[in-house]
Design brief:
CATH architecture of one domain: Roll
CATH topology of one domain: Nuclear Transport Factor 2, Chain: A
GO molecular function: DNA binding; sigma factor activity
Strand content: 5-15%
Family: Belongs to the sigma-70 factor family. ECF subfamily.
Protein name: RNA polymerase sigma factor
Radius of gyration: 22 Å
Number of strands: 6
Oligomer: single chain
Helix content: 40-55%
Pfam families: Sigma70_r2, Sigma70_r4_2
Distance between the termini: 38 Å
Order of helices and strands: HHHHHHHHHHHHEEHEEEE
Shape: globular
Structural class: alpha+beta
Number of helices: 13
Largest sheet: 6 strands, mixed
Subunit structure: Interacts transiently with the RNA polymerase catalytic core formed by RpoA, RpoB, RpoC and RpoZ (2 alpha, 1 beta, 1 beta' and 1 omega subunit) to form the RNA polymerase holoenzyme that can initiate transcription.
Length: 338
Amino acid sequence: MTIPPQGVLLLAVQAGDQHAFECLVEPYQRELLTHCYRMLGSYHDAEDLVQETLLRAWEKRASFTDQGSYRAWLYRIATNLCLNMLTRSPRRSLPPNSSHKSDPTRPLPRRASEPIWLEPFPDELEASYESDPEEKAMQSEYIRLAFLTAIQQLTPTQRAILLLRGVLDWEAREVAEWLNLSVVAVNSGLQRARHTLRQHQVLPEARATLPPSQLQPLLQRYVTLWEQGDISGLVGLMREDAWFTMPPIPAWFQGRKAIETLFRTSIFSMAQQWRLLPTHANASPAFGLYKHNTETATYQLFGLLVLDFDGELIANTVTFLELHSLLPFALPDTFPAF
């Protein structure tokens, strides 16, 4: 089906044509979802905010004129809705940024019930702004957990400025108008935001990644070791200062020795109890984690492992255990039989 030019769609939307509105906004929904997720750190909150953005755009359709960009208008609505939500929502992060290192010889603490942890984001839903491979790699850096954790340290306004100016490259004049700030305040906010990122050693530049010919054998070895319960082999794939965490459990463990102790005492208490299903999250290799259920004799979805590599070694592992946050990945409830 041929979609009419934007000008024609706008006139139809002004006249109250719901179908024209859907055609008009459809190209922007994925990038709005990505933007709101970066702002909020929650896929589900981002999804709700995108729907609220489209509702507001429909309700206020008569106030839009074709003197500006419809895409920019949607971003303005979405950003301000995110800022409103952030005034009443807790800052999301990961355990390494909110608590001291945990002792692997002590029992794990109870899961935190509050929505305070970052949620994972499926790579297949990430907006693709550029066709150039290098630019795509650069944009992927802005969806990684390390970047998202770092920008949670910013004020909501600084976060919006960084994403709109530093990531999406909107002009300072536009961002100032959207946020009711001066251009000077926007430029100053961008400088402070970038300074914070440098302090967290998260720079807005693409990093070298292993080519698939090198990465895939490593990932296959990781799967084999995990499913065999080979703790020494798994730890051997990690950097000496690697860390491991399992939100919503408010604990994290750093160093091969500590992670090995955790594996032996808590995770691999029985052999052959895990299966892994490959996927991708936050521009990183990931696996659906399935645990054996002796009553049903099946492997049931238990969590999502997201790996961050430094060269050929794993720098950190985030294991998301809140199953509700995994719904966007459409992982099967039980490990499929192959």
